Amino acid sequence: MQVSFTSNGPETPLHQMDVRTKMLISAAASLVVILLKSVPALALLSLASAGYLMLTRRWRVMIIAWIVILLLWITAVGFMNLMHLFMPKMGASGMANMLIPFLRSLVLVNTLLAMALSTRIQGILTTLRSLHLPYWLYIPAAVMVRFLPSLVEDMRQIAEAIRIKGYPLNPWALLFSPRRTIRLFFVPMLFRALRTSDDLGIAAELKGVGYGDRISRFREQRFSRFDYGTLAASCACFILSLVINAYSKVTTFMGM
Fold this sequence. Notes:
The protein is mainly alpha-helical. It has helices spanning 2-5, 13-16, 19-35, 39-54, 59-86, 95-117, 121-130, 135-164, 171-176, 178-206, 225-255. It folds into two domains: 1-17 and 120-221, no CATH class; 19-117 and 223-256, no CATH class. α4 (39-54) packs parallel to α6 (95-117) and α5 packs antiparallel against α6 (95-117).
């Protein structure tokens, strides 16, 4: 149950960053992307959040996450064009309109993964507890954040087991042998996800839930210069993206 207690991978400056900084960036990103309706503005945030995620140095996880999002976007575009082919009255959405939800999802995934891959569950619990939230609220929140890297590790282990057995594991196997792929990969993933969620819940309880007044952290929560610099850079990116979004609206209005 090592994955329940700490993040796998190399120690980076992002691991030393205060948990509150990561939570503020994730919360601010989730609010800003709702306001943005311009592709250039969202593209700027996507690139900035990708650079932020790269600080974790978890290249394999990053590539897998980006490929999954790209495949989902391609699937959505394909189905929209298919609907337009059979129902012309529905109308085909432009590429810009289809890019907007994709870029929004990319920003949210980047910021959330950066926090999940570089934060210990103890830090998440302490930060959420400092907000004076009830334990039935911050325990599921902490488990959800730490569930992402645990799920990635489970996927890697199941994929290795399938390859050891001599079965192919690729998109073609899912297309031509869906029943076998579901039986070998998705069913074990379902049971592993349930087991992992239980393990993470137990790990969270072992961190002192219900005894908040009697325990103390080994490291005190303090903002460092790197935290202040990251927050300043994040605020600059958010403000710049809002300015670009407003400029795009004015340009579109003047063009009309």
